[in-house]
Every structure is written in structure tokens, then in C-alpha cells.
Amino acid sequence: MESAPTYKPERVIRVMKRKQLPTPCYVVDEAKIEANCQILRGVMDRTGCQILLAQKAFSLFALYPLIGKYLVGAASSGLYEARLAQEYFPGESHVFSAAFRPDDFPEILGYADKIIFNSIGQLRQYGTMAREAGLSVGLRVNPEHSTQDGSGIYDPCAPGSRLGVTRAQFDLYKGAPGASRPTLDGLHFHTLCQQGAAPLVETVAAFEERFGEFLYGLDWINLGGGHHITRAGYDIAALEACIRHLADTYGVTIYLEPGEAIALNAGVLETTVLDIVQNGDTQIAILDASAACHMPDVIEMPYRPPLFDSGLPGERAYTYRLAGMTCLSGDVIGDYSFDAPLQIGDRLTFGDMAIYTMVKNNTFNGMPLPSIWVEGADGECRLIRVFGYADFKMRLG
To answer: Which of 132, 145, 249, 270 has the fewest CB atoms within 10 Å distance of its CB?
Structure first.
């Protein structure tokens, strides 16, 4: 394994090869982003659906012009994402929030084309204002059909969920006087997380069972995100059949807003071994990257991120626990095995690090944020952003 250069933000060369990059750093593969977008564009062309980038998973706006060549717009979760899309992403702008702030809402109206409310109360509070501003108005509903096993934190259909209007709540809305029922142009549901087409087919059936009678006369239906369309083995034919069924049955435009599918397997996190310690039978390699700071889903989901040139614990000759350099005891990335012993200065590469990393990272313990690079088809990496002390300090005062 090769040693990494010393991290000196003020001395970073703006174009270099990946193995030369100072760590920690995210590197996004431009060609892979485009390949993913081409798959999504094929779904659009064959079905007539419209696909948006969900910025909550991937917001590297330096690549928005490329993604905008294939997708029709971006989906945002609030004011700042909506503004980012308006500034950098060509095409439609859809905005959903679990609740809109009254001081943000007038500005959001200037950035959005379609706005989606999470509750009847918010629809009544803001729906007329949105329509008068010329926006298309939608409502998120809850099909009350869980397809996720053991991951309630990511299940919008879990009992007691705050996301989406149930059929019982919707019936109360439909029974209200006309003045209390702002007109709806579309319905939205988002229930999946890193899933294939079969859970979508199940969910659509539940959605039609609960809300089918209200779908006629709408302009659009949004099937949300969580669709791993660009993953190897994804059943694209089943997805397309589902889209055609809804579009043909109800005469609506179908939207999807995947985030991960755009940047799936399109980025890495390069890191360096700083120290190796031992506790009992456990060998621990401490890295200059942190699960808590740089790949927080490792702890939140949790999951074990892929690591190039490694195996499962015990699968290869030498097993190590890889951990971050923060004071958090649980700042552990996972256990991995290698063909040769790790050495201080070795460089390790974690895969699938374009999604839910840059958008969620933090500076706990004063940890530096990884620099961000984009790798072109020629293997040259161009610097997008390098971070330093000022980026830590500015968040605190």
C-alpha cells in the first residue's frame, strides 16, 4: 500500500492523479455519474416519466450541469436546497418539507415549481399562497405499507410516523368545507430506502387501495426516492411496468426523485493509517478519516462500508478494526481483513462514498472536512473544494 502525502490545504495542487491526493478526501467519478444518469434517462425515454435528483443524498453542484443533461430537475427538502437547485440545476424544482417555516416560505415560493406539503394543516396554511404564486400544489400521503425489515428509522410507514397523510386524515380533509380544501394537483409518497422494484410494486398496490379513487383528475403522482435503479440486478422492467400502469390508469405524469441512484458507486473516500494499536486480540488501525464525521451513516444506519482490497474479518490473513481519530469510543468503521499487515502511512479506499457523506459530514472534535475532488475519464482529479480551520471556526461564531 502506498503512503499518502501530508495534508497541507494551502499547498494543494488543483489537478493531480487520485493516488497523489492528500487525505482524507472524497473523489467523485464523473464518468460513473454520467453512466448512472444514462440509465435513468433510459427509464424516462421508455415510459415518459420524469426523474429528479434528490439533493438530500448528493448535492455536489459542480456536477449539476452534467446531471441536468439527463434529468428534468431537482427535489429539495427546504429553503437552502431549493435555492441551490435554483442557482445551479437547470429544469424543474420540487420542494417538500415535513414542515415549512413561515419566515422561509415566501422565499421558497420564488425557487419552486411544485411544492409538496406533509400535513393537512400545512396545506391549509400555505396552499392558497402557493397557488397564487403560480406553483403546482401536492400532498404527501402515507400508504401505511412497510416494506423495510428492522430499519424503522428509515421507514416512513412505521407506526406513529410523522411523514405523510394517512387515509383517515385524508378523509377528514375531503369532508371539510370547500374553503378549507385547497385544490391539489398531485400526490406524493416516499416509502423506500435502498430498495428494488418489488417493494415499489407492493407499495403502489397499497397506495391505490387507499387513495386510488382520488387519483383521477390529478396532474401528477410522485413516487419519491429510495429506488436503487442503477444497482446491478435492479428489475428495471418491473419499475417501468409500474410507471406505465399508473400513468395510463389515471392520466397523470409520474415523477421519481432518487438520490442514491444518481451517485451510486460513483465516489470513494481516500484515507491514511495514522497509528496501529492493540487491545487484547484486537488490532486497531486509526485513520485520518472518521465514521462519526465523514461517513455518519456507518453509525446511524448502521452499515459496514465497502473497502477496496480487503475481506471480511478472518477471511484474509490479517484482521484489523478500522477506526477514526475522534474521542468518540464508537467512532468505528468496521472490521476488515488484508493479505498483508497494515503499516502506518498505508492508504485505504472506501467505496460508495458519494452519497450521504458530503451532505452529512461534520467537524466534531475539530476534525477537518475531507477535500472534494472530481475524477475525469482521463484519470485526472480536479479540486472542487479544500477545507481548513476557517470552515470549522465559522460554524461556531
So the answer is: 132
